[in-house]
Amino acid sequence: MINVTKTFLPDQEEYLQYVRGIWERGYLTNNGPLLQQLEGQLKEYLNVDYLYFCGNGTIVLQIAIKALELKGEIITTPFSYCATSNAILWENCTPVFVDIDAATFNINAELIEASITPATSAILATHVYGNPCDVEAIEAIAQKHNLKVIYDAAHAFGVTYKGKSLLSYGDLSTCSFHATKVFHTIEGGALISNHPELDRKLHLLRAFGHQGDEHYEFAGINGKNSEFHAAMGLVNLPQVPAIIQARKEVFEAYDSLLNWDILFKPTLSADIEYNYAYYPVVFPSEAVMFRVMEALKVGEIIPRRYFYPSLNTLSFMPRQIACPVSEDIAARVLSLPLYVGLPYEDIERISRMINGHLSP
Ligand SMILES: *Cc1c(COP(=O)(O)O)cnc(C)c1O
Description:
Elements lengths: L1 E2 L8 H14 L7 H14 L3 E5 L4 H9 L5 E4 L5 H9 L3 E4 L22 E7 L8 H11 L2 E5 L7 E2 L2 E2 L6 E5 L12 E5 L5 H8 L3 E2 L3 E2 L10 H10 L3 H18 L14 E2 L6 E3 L3 H13 L2 E2 L21 H9 E3 L8 H12 L5
Parallel strand pairs: 1-15, 3-4, 3-5, 5-6, 6-9
Antiparallel strand pairs: 2-10, 7-8, 7-13, 9-10, 11-12, 14-16
The structure holds pyridoxal-5'-phosphate.
Family: Belongs to the DegT/DnrJ/EryC1 family.
GO molecular function, one term: transaminase activity
Keywords: Aminotransferase, Pyridoxal phosphate, Transferase
């Protein structure tokens, strides 16, 4: 069976060495030494000043919204994982969906201003598949209308844009280190901040909002992560350049094998160093996509409809807002298997099966 992804597992002995250290110290969680060590290494690797390692990539979205004290409406993208809009709902704000650009699949910055109202407090956009949003245009709109900007950068680990970490754009960026992501800590996430003045607040929000047993400042949450998760990060982080290189090879193999007269994929920005996080392909119609999916399934190959459905169509959204481009792409996109160690023969086989089922 070949799945859309396969979790990278590092050398077991290296991980166990860290675990033995945890046993010796008897210190399992709460801002422990391994967590601090990982935060230091991540800041260095990503070249960012303020980074908070947290429980997962969803709680960091919630903490970001809380930290910036957002209220009312938040402009967001319908083409993302449900965690993006769910976090907005959990923070009692209203997601206002703005359609995506048909070439990049990121929020269409040209459509944002028409959706701004007096109730708008922020823009929360996803760097889809690790491909940067139009960060300059979004920054200009945010300045003009006095809005905050949060990027869901769950896909963007290690991506640089114009020579800078993509995570350093916006007021806050969030990352997921879930087992399925390019860099993982089993479960985990991080908040990346460009605001020194928020440092204390972000530390407190992550850990219940109090310092010691005397000093309760506000209602924080449990966004912490453990020494075991930090250990997985410490073992995996040095492997990231090799992981990205191996993913690049799979990515380029698909590039050379698939039938681009019929298929298409999002256009990557020219100004990036990419992390090869996903391999999405868009089929001519949903019917063709289903036919390909069936054929792959017979060969025990399981791609993923990612992202599907377009989030604006979810029944529990407080407002139904049409996003025709996002709905169209979501209906006919598949992310193909992409992971370290996927053999070239399998990439060839998958590509052959896809190319063989494309007639209308
Ligand atoms: C994975 C992902 C998340 C959620 O991250 P978790 O660590 O699983 O909570 C949020 N947004 C996007 C775009 C993701 O891909």
